[in-house]
Amino acid sequence: MSAAPGSDVADEVEPLFALVRERYGDRLTAAQLDEVRKGVEGVVLAARALRAVRLETSDEPFPPFIPHRGPS
Amino acid sequence: MSESPVFLPVRRLAELVRARTISPVALAETFLDRLERLGPTYNCVVTITRERAMTEARRAEHEIAGGRYRGPLHGIPYGAKDLLATAGGIPTTWGAAPLREQRFAFDATVIRKLEEAGAVLCAKLAMVELAGGMGYRQPHASFTGPGINPWNPDAWSGGSSSGSGSAVAAGLVPFAIGSETWGSILSPAGYCGIAGLRPSYGRVSRHGAMALCWTLDKLGPLGLTAEDCGLVLEAIAGEDPADPSTSERPWRFDAADVTGRRFRFGVMKGVTAGCDDAVVAAFARSLETLRGIGSVEEVELPDLPWEAITRTILHVEAASAFEDFIAAGTLAELTAPEDHWSVYARDAILAKDYVKALRLRGVMAREADRLLSRFDALVGPGHATVAPGLEQEFRSAIRGSAPDLMGAIGNGAGLPAICVPNGFGDRGLPTSLQFMGRVYEENSVLAAARAWQSLTSWHLRHPGSSAAATG
């Protein structure tokens, strides 16, 4: 299912899709580009689901960063 | 000997080898012959490693004759997914046409550990190209052809450890090694009606394995029984300085008799949503059986975007791991047309959304551990459907076209799970049952699966058997 033109989702999809098209458009047919646009819509929908969750600033990326110290 | 070694579990083969009823050389010749004759039928073999196998088999035979028995894998043939590096000029293709000639000068840690256990490498087994990380949608996604299901030649064997699943199910090797980032062990095990164990993240060294997603990749065994998976895991588990993700916790397979043991099983609310009718029916029957050996309680997790969390991490890591491959345009040489372009959309994932997924992963890990601490295992269908047809586009949680809550949480949080057969559905194809446990509790899920297999006979049925699809 494609986001309707002018919809909130489509407003976010278009600039992101433009970036992907700029990078790879010369490798792709029109049909493939259309499939890539659907992929970008999936990315946006997943991102919105993630953004909808409120976290505390103390919720750090997991697994947490561990500094490295060599053997000497 | 009168007992055919084909379709015997590793435990039984080990007894025969140790008693010198069958020789490792004869065993290797039996399975090498089957790999050569039947491997092409299932598109499950990339390279038969006959020379290495016979060298290892002769060594095993000599050692056992001399009284030096290494353990239950000594002299037992196996196959390895072709993303594990092997020395000696043996190709390691990652299932990808442009990498047909790729070779490494060393053995992956898993291969080395199995050699130390005395196992005999007979074949590098077929897989979906680049372990499916480029977004394939249908079975024609390997230069060796689609994995053919031994139960039905018109059905897929699953992926991405396609050859590992079909080779074990068809009796071409007693066990195999596969890998899972999201579903790649449980899917072929479930579709092919065998046992497949996804260990905890960090339980098994990935040194020498193709990297798809550094924080999601796991290596694990596929075998005829849950017990066989435990025997193999014991040989390959352990800390490895070459893989900093490996856990320092030692692990031994607890093979104690599970007769009379009571289990606590959890079932996630809505776990059968989107499943085929035959899968739902088989799962309902399985729960009735499990109630005979323990309690079954429905449980619920907070309403969070579990699948989006794991999918976002997977998409970003895979795009990064293959950055050079993608930039060079090498994707165009892959077999599946959709693998030529699907990955490009991942450039649209924003950095802050990826970091949000990582932050939510902490919530996922804590919530999963809180829930699982109350149970021996969560149970659910191994897969939502039976194996799709060879020409069929399949549903995939990784693409977002099918629900897989247990897969999302299990892989995102690095939890162990085992898949075992629990019936048959449409087109004579197996259905499966999954047990998922708390991190590092492989023995809990193995015990539950062994108890299940002590009460059922699905694992005793093999393709071609007249009674296979009944009862």
Give a summary of the structure in a few sentences.
The complex is a heterodimer of chains A (72) and B (471). Chain A is mostly helical and 72 residues long.
Please characterize this protein's 3D structure.
Chain A contains two helices and no strands. Chain A is mostly helical. The termini of chain A are far apart. The mean pLDDT of chain A is 92. Chain B is an alpha/beta fold and 471 residues long. Helices cover 33% and strands 15% of the residues of chain B. In chain B, the strands form two sheets. Chain B has an eleven-stranded mixed sheet with strand order 1-3-2-6-8-7-12-13-11-9-10, sandwiched between helices. A two-stranded antiparallel ribbon of chain B has the order 4-5. In chain B, strand 2 (77-81), helix 4 (109-116) and strand 3 (120-125) form a beta-alpha-beta unit. Mean pLDDT of chain B is 96; it is low at 466-471. Chains A and B meet through helix 1 and helix 2 of A and helix 9 and helix 11 of B.
